[in-house]
Specification:
Blueprint lengths: L6 H8 L4 E6 L5 H16 L4 E6 L6 H11 L5 E3 L8 E3 L5 E6 L16 E4 L9 H7 L11 E6 L6 H8 L9 E6 L5 E11 L5 H6 L3 H6 L3 H7 L17 H4 L12 E7 L7 E7 L5 E8 L14 H12 L6 E4 L13 H8 L2 E4 L4 H13 L9 E3 L4 H6 L5 E2 L2 E5 L6 H11 L1 H4 L7 E4 L2 E4 L8
Parallel strand pairs: 1-7, 1-9, 2-5, 2-6, 6-7, 10-13, 12-15, 13-14
Antiparallel strand pairs: 3-4, 4-5, 8-9, 10-11, 11-12, 16-17, 18-19
Length: 460
C-alpha cells in the first residue's frame, strides 16, 4: 500500500469541519496529513478542485516537494515547475490541481486577490506572526461548481504565531470538538461555518516510533520548554516565556466557598478603551493567598489586544451592579485612571460616581513582576499556589503564558503584548490587601464599627 493513515490522520481525513488546525507536537504526521487532505479534496471534486499549500519560505518547501512526489507521482500526477496556471503545480489525472508555494511576508497573500480555491493549506502555521494570511485566504475559498471548500493549518507550539493560533483554536475550547458559527446573509438565509483543533503528537504516530526508536529520547533531552511543546504539544509554554511556572492544571482552581470570616474581597483593574480593560475580583486570606474568582475582560471577540471602546461610566455602573450584591466596593486601579485631558471627569471619577472606592495602585513594574512570579511559584502547606484563578477568568489564563520580556528592559514585560490581565493582577499583588492581609481578613463591618473575628481557622 502506497500510504496508510495513522489514527489521528484518519480523524483529520474524516473531519467535516471547514476550518481545521492539526498538530501540536513533533512527529505527529502533520505534513503527510495536510497533503492527503488536499488530495482527498482533489480526488472527490476532480477538475473542479483547486488546492494550494503554503510554507513561510521557499527553502522550507523542499521536504513538502519530496513527500508530494512520493505520494502523488505514483498515482499519475504530473509536476510542472511553470505552467499557464502558475509555478510548482501537480496536475492530477482527473483534472484537479495542487500548488505548493510560499509567502515571504503576510501581506504577500494579496497577490491571490481574484483567485479561488477549494482547498487552502498552511504547513507550519506558527511561522506566521499574525492571522492576516489565514483570514485573507479564507476569502479565496469558493467554488462556482459546488465543490466543498476548506482551510487546514498544521503546526507546533513555540512559533511567532503561537499567540493568535492558541486564541483561535485552543482558548476556551475542547480539542477534537467541532464548533459552529452561524452568519446571517442578506437574503435572510444562514451560513454555517465549523472549526476544530485536532491535536497530534509523536505518540499518535507509532510508525515513526517504530522506524526511529531514538526520536522520543531526542525530544526528552530537550530543554523543558521545548520538551513540553514538541513532545507533549503544550501551547502554554515557549522560549522566552516570563511566567513559565504558570500551569493550567495547578493555577486554575474550581470555585470553593469564600467564607467572609476567612477571605477578604476586593477588585483590581487595568483600564483600556481602544485597548482591552481588565477588571478582576479577588479574595485574599490571612496568609496572603489570593484567588481571582471573577473577571470582566473588555477584549473584542475573536481579536487580540483590541478593546471594546466602552465608556468608563457605563462600565463602572455595570461592574457596580455585579459587585454590590456581595459587598465588594473597592478597586485598586491603574494610576492612569486619574489622568485628565480636559474638564470632563477622569476615569477614576466616573467609577467613584457609580459608588466605587478607588485606590491608585503601586505601579513599581520591576518589583511587581518579582512579586507576581513569587505568588505563582510559592504554595501553601497543602501545595496550592499562592495565586490561583477560577476557570472562567479566561483573559488571565489566555494571556499570562504568552508574556515575554521587554527586549530593552529584561526586568519588565514587553508592553506591546496583551499585558492587561497581568497589569491588573500585579496591582492586586502589590496592594495593601495582599501585603498586609491581617488588617482586612476576618473583619465584620456593622454600623460603621470594625469587629475582628477571633475564631479564625483557614482550614475550616
Amino acid at each position: 500500500m502506497l500510504w496508510s493513515p495513522q489514527p489521528k490522520q484518519t480523524e483529520l481525513l474524516t473531519c467535516p469541519a471547514t476550518e481545521i488546525f492539526y498538530g501540536g507536537a513533533a512527529g505527529g504526521g502533520k505534513s503527510d496529513g495536510l497533503l492527503m487532505k488536499a488530495f482527498q479534496n482533489i480526488y472527490e471534486y476532480g477538475r473542479n478542485a483547486k488546492a494550494i499549500i503554503f510554507r513561510r519560505a521557499y527553502g522550507e518547501l523542499a521536504e513538502l516537494f519530496r513527500r508530494a512526489d512520493e505520494l502523488f507521482i505514483p498515482v499519475g500526477a504530473k509536476y510542472k515547475s511553470n505552467s499557464k496556471f502558475g509555478p510548482n503545480i501537480y496536475f492530477f489525472p482527473n483534472g484537479g490541481q495542487l500548488q505548493l508555494t510560499y509567502l515571504r511576508k503576510d501581506t504577500d497573500v494579496t497577490i491571490y486577490q481574484g483567485s479561488q480555491y477549494t482547498f487552502v493549506g498552511f504547513d507550519e502555521l506558527g511561522n506566521y506572526p499574525t492571522d492576516y494570511a489565514w483570514e485573507y485566504m479564507q476569502s479565496r475559498l469558493r467554488s462556482a461548481k459546488g465543490a466543498r471548500s476548506l482551510i487546514v493549518g498544521t503546526g507546533n507550539p513555540g512559533g511567532v504565531g503561537q499567540g493568535w493560533i492558541k486564541k483561535r483554536f485552543m482558548d476556551g475550547r475542547l480539542a477534537d470538538h467541532i464548533y459552529k458559527r452561524e452568519v446571517k446573509l442578506r437574503n435572510g438565509s444562514v451560513q454555517e461555518f465549523t472549526s476544530v483543533y485536532i491535536p497530534s503528537t509523536l505518540y499518535d504516530n507509532p510508525e515513526l516510533i517504530k522506524n526511529d526508536p531514538n526520536y522520543e529520547a531526542k525530544l526528552l533531552m530537550l530543554p523543558q520548554y521545548l520538551r513540553d511543546a514538541l513532545l507533549n504539544g503544550s501551547w502554554d509554554v515557549f522560549a522566552g516565556q516570563v511566567f513559565s511556572v504558570f500551569k493550567r492544571q495547578t493555577h486554575v482552581r474550581e470555585h470553593f466557598l469564600l467564607d467572609p470570616r476567612y477571605w477578604y474581597k476586593f477588585c483590581s483593574m487595568d483600564w483600556g478603551f481602544s485597548k482591552p480593560y481588565d477588571l478582576q475580583w479577588w479574595a485574599v486570606n490571612r496568609e496572603g493567598q489570593c484567588y481571582m474568582y471573577r473577571e470582566m475582560y473588555g477584549c473584542k471577540d475573536d481579536s487580540r489586544n483590541v478593546g471594546l471602546r466602552k465608556g468608563s461610566d457605563e462600565l463602572a455602573k455595570e461592574a457596580w451592579n455585579v459587585a454590590l450584591t456581595e459587598g465588594v466596593t473597592t478597586i485598586v486601579a491603574d494610576p492612569a485612571m486619574w489622568g485628565k485631558s480636559d474638564n470632563a471627569p477622569c476615569v477614576a471619577e466616573n467609577f467613584e460616581k457609580a459608588g466605587w472606592k478607588m485606590i491608585p495602585a503601586n505601579n513599581d513594574r520591576v518589583s511587581g513582576l518579582v512579586l507576581f512570579n513569587q505568588m505563582l511559584t510559592n504554595t501553601d502547606e497543602n501545595g496550592v499556589p499562592m495565586l490561583t484563578v477560577a476557570p472562567e477568568c479566561q483573559g488571565f489564563i489566555d494571556t499570562i503564558p504568552l508574556l515575554t520580556p521587554d527586549p530593552n528592559h529584561q526586568e519588565d514585560i514587553d508592553t506591546k503584548l496583551e499585558d492587561h490581565p497581568y497589569d491588573a493582577a500585579r496591582y492586586a499583588m502589590m496592594s495593601d490587601f495582599v501585603q498586609n492581609p491581617q488588617r482586612y481578613v476576618g473583619m465584620e463591618r456593622r454600623s460603621g464599627n470594625v469587629k475582628y473575628v477571633d475564631d479564625y481557622n483557614p482550614l475550616e
